[in-house]
Amino acid sequence: MDLCGTQMLRLSSPHFKTLHLVRHAQGVHNIALEEKGEKPESEKLFDAHLSPKGLQQVSERRNQILESGLLNTVELVITSPLCRAMETSIGIFRGQEYVNISEDFAKANNFPPIVALEICRERMGLYPCDRRASISTRRTFFPEIDFTMIESDEDALWQDKEREKLEDVATRGLHFVKWLWERPEKEIAIVSHGIFLQQTLCALHGKVGIPLEDSLLTRFANCELRSIRIEKSDMEADTLMTCNCRNYVTPPSTSFHSHA
After folding, report:
1. How far apart are the C-alpha atoms of 188 and 171, rounded to whole Å?
2. Is 122 annotated as catalytic?
3. Catalytic residue among 20, 24, 29, 193
4. Residue 236 annotated in active site
5. Fewer CB within 10 A of the terminal residue: the chain, N end or C end?
């Protein structure tokens, strides 16, 4: 597998598929934690939404991928069910159709299904910003997102007493990549979070043995896009063949409803 620019990945092959990894745009919790000194345990940051700067970042990213042609080649979008990730997903892949996003967003001809999955959410536990609202509540605000692969209406994964171990986050990431490989789509976008995406790439490098430059293993900036190509040989590595994680974050199947 190699990391490369989005312009380079246009061919479809049974021996590889392309994943476009996007960290959510700036959330209000990023401002509170990094600029205002708010404690991460603050309930005010519960399931944080995007900041005005974050909305602007989404607009800029959408325009960039429209210009590159990438927006018309993605077949499926997987999003974390946390609010900031879903807002980023809708803003980039639906644009002007999202009522809370500026009408200045550029238009696209392709509208891939957007599916929410627990397995790609941020490191869980302790911090309310990483605890999601109920699915029944979010369905009202995000009618374009398919929530059928999330089994619990309330957030049954987030624990207020302990923070998920980084090793467990990495294991989730490997299991997620394995699941993505088994899907029929050849080009998939994933909108997730800084820790999850970084731990996933580090695990692919350190545990699976894929050589990656140090610069590719750094923390994602808000709304940053990195495109990776996974090869058939990567998916045959022993670490991935035996990879598993807790059943409660495992997608129940490779089937889901697609929006018309």
Report:
1. 20
2. yes
3. 24
4. no
5. C
